[in-house]
Amino acid sequence: MAFNLSDWLHASYLESATVKKLWQQFQHNLPFPYLELPHFFLPEKIVEVLKALAQEEFTLKEADLFKFRQTADLISSKHTVMRNSPLKANFCDTKGHARTLSVLQEFRNFLCSEEFVSYLSTLTNTSLKPGEIDMSATIYEDTDFLLCHDDQLESRKIAYFLYLSDVDTSDGGWLNLFSSEDGRPTEAGKMILPKFNTFSFFLVSEKSFHSVEEVVSDTQRIAISGWFRGKGSDD
Amino acid sequence: MIDNQYLEKKNIQQIRKSFHLQKELPSVTLHSFLEKDSYEQLQKKILKLPFQHQHQWASHSYSAASLTPETEKTLQAVAEFIHNLLPQKHSSAPFHASLFTWKDYTILSDESREKPGTDIILDLTDDWQDGAGGAMVYRIKEDNYVIPVRGNSLTIVQRKSSAQRFVQYVNHYGEGKKRVFLLKRCKS
C-alpha cells in the first residue's frame, strides 16, 4: 500500500531545503544525533490517533528502570469492546468504533511504509527497514519515570517519540539526552519538553543514554514510541 | 538491645518456620526488632555518619557510609541473633549504611549481580510514605518481591543465584525525607 507523505506530514517538512537542513542538524546535534520536530503531522491525523488511543488498554509496567503505563505493541490493536479509558479526556466514540481500530493500524502502516522510512532514512543518513517497527503508547502520570539507559538491542536503529500531550517544566516528564564518556553517561546535555504533535527521534548507539524525568504533577504525559530497525538486522 | 519477644525459644522456632515458607526467596521480616531506646540511639548514630553520595547515572544514585568500629560492636548482638536463628556459616561481613532520598535509586545490571548469600537489612527509616518508592526489591525472573519500608524492622533474605536486589527509585513524595538502612551481605 503506497502512502503520500503530504497526506500526513506538515508541508514544510517536505521542502527539499528543509530536509537538507534537518539532515545536517541531525548529524551535528549533541550530545548524540537527534531531531525534535514540532507540528510534524497534520493536526487532524494526530487528533484521530489520540482519539483511537483512548480505546486501548494501558497496563502498569514497573521495574528497577521505570514506572509508567503502556499498551501492547499497537500492531496487535484489535479490541472490539468499549472500555473505560485511562486518558482523562473522554474521546470514546461508539459510532466510529470500527474506524478507531483502523486509525491506529493506518498510522502504524504509514510510519513503517516505504515512503516514510525512506524519508526518515534520508534525514538520519541510515538504512532503515520498512515494514517493521515497534510501536506502543505510554502514559506517564504522577511519580512515573524512566531512568537512564541507552536502548541498545541488536536491531534497534532509530528510537522515536510522538508526543500527544503538552508538558511544562513544572510537571517534569521531559526527555533527557545525556553526554557520555568511555561508554558511561556523564550529564544531562539536552532536555526535550514534550509538546503535542512533536516528533522526536535519535540514533541508537552505545552513546544514546536518555531518561524521562519523573512526572511530579497531576498531568498525563502521553506518547507513542518505539524503534525503527536497520536494514540487514534480524527480526 | 533486641526486643525480648524475639529472644523467646518458641518465637525463634516460629521465625525459622516462616523463613522457609517461601521457597523462591526464603525470608522473614521482624517488626519492632530493637528495644525503643536502642533503636533511637542507633538511628541517631547512623544519621551522624559522614555519608558520601555515589552516582553513576545508568547504575545507581545514593549515599553510603561505613560504620564505626564502636557501632559495629553494638550490632554484635544482632549478628549473634541471626547466627542463632539460622545456624549456617556466615562471613563476618560488616554492616554498611545506605541513605536514599528523592531521585535516588539502584538499577539492576550484570555488574551488580552478586553470588548467592544472605542479606540482613536493618531498617532505620521513620516517617516514610508508602507511595514514595525506596523499597528494597528482590527480582527473580519476572517476579518482584518487595520489602516495604518500615523503621525498626529486621529483614533476613536468603538470595539464591536467580535473585537480584535493587532499591526502588525514590519519587518526589520522598523529598526532604531520608530512607536509611543497614545492609550486611553474607556469603553462603
Explain what the structure shows.
The complex is a heterodimer of chains A (235) and B (188). Chain A contains four helices and eleven strands; from the N terminus they run H-E-H-E-E-H-H-E-E-E-E-E-E-E-E. In chain A, strands 1, 2, 3, 4, 5, 6, 7, 8, 9, 10 and 11 form an eleven-stranded antiparallel sheet that branches. In chain A, 40% of the residues are buried. Chain A is globular. Chain A has helices at 16-28, 43-53, 97-111, 114-124; strands spanning 34-37, 59-62, 66-70, 128-140, 145-149, 156-163, 175-181, 184-192, 198-203, 210-212, 221-230. Chain B has 188 residues and is of the alpha+beta class. Chain B is built from four helices and eleven strands; from the N terminus they run αβαββααββββββββ. The model of chain B has no long low-confidence stretch (mean pLDDT 91). Chain A binds chain B through residues 62-65, 67, 143, 145, 147-150, 178, 184-186, 209, 211, 214, 216, and chain B through 56-58, 103, 105-108, 131, 133, 137, 139, 144, 166, 168-169, 171-173.
Question: What's this, in brief?
Answer:
With 235 residues, chain A is of the alpha+beta class. Chain A has helices spanning 16-28, 43-53, 97-111, 114-124, and strands at residues 34-37, 59-62, 66-70, 128-140, 145-149, 156-163, 175-181, 184-192, 198-203, 210-212, 221-230. In chain A, strands 1, 2, 3, 4, 5, 6, 7, 8, 9, 10 and 11 form an eleven-stranded antiparallel beta sheet that branches.
